[in-house]
Predict the structure.
Amino acid sequence: MKEMIAKEMESLINEGKLLNIIDVREVEEVEVGKIPGAVNIPLGLVEFRMHELDKSKEYIMVCRSGGRSGRATEFLESHGFNVINMQGGMLSWEGKVE
């Protein structure tokens, strides 16, 4: 499984890179704050919403601490998607939130 640290992702965002970020936390968790531009697809719905994703794009998965996003990364990888897990999740995120 490919992984990236929060600081690396923050640097890419600050450089103006357009990233496809999927936050797999529950709706209530995301309401407290999410990485700008992240799309919320709770972990339990990933299987049912993966048809919304494009296999030609790279996605970065985020959750609270890295566990749920790790599971989502493994699941999507097994279905042919190009995904990266953000290690440490939002607990390690120091960038802007919306």
Observations:
- The two ends are 28 Å apart (CA to CA).
- The chain has one domain: 2-92.
- The beta strands are 2-5, 20-23, 39-40, 58-62, 82-87.
- The longest strand covers residues 82-87.
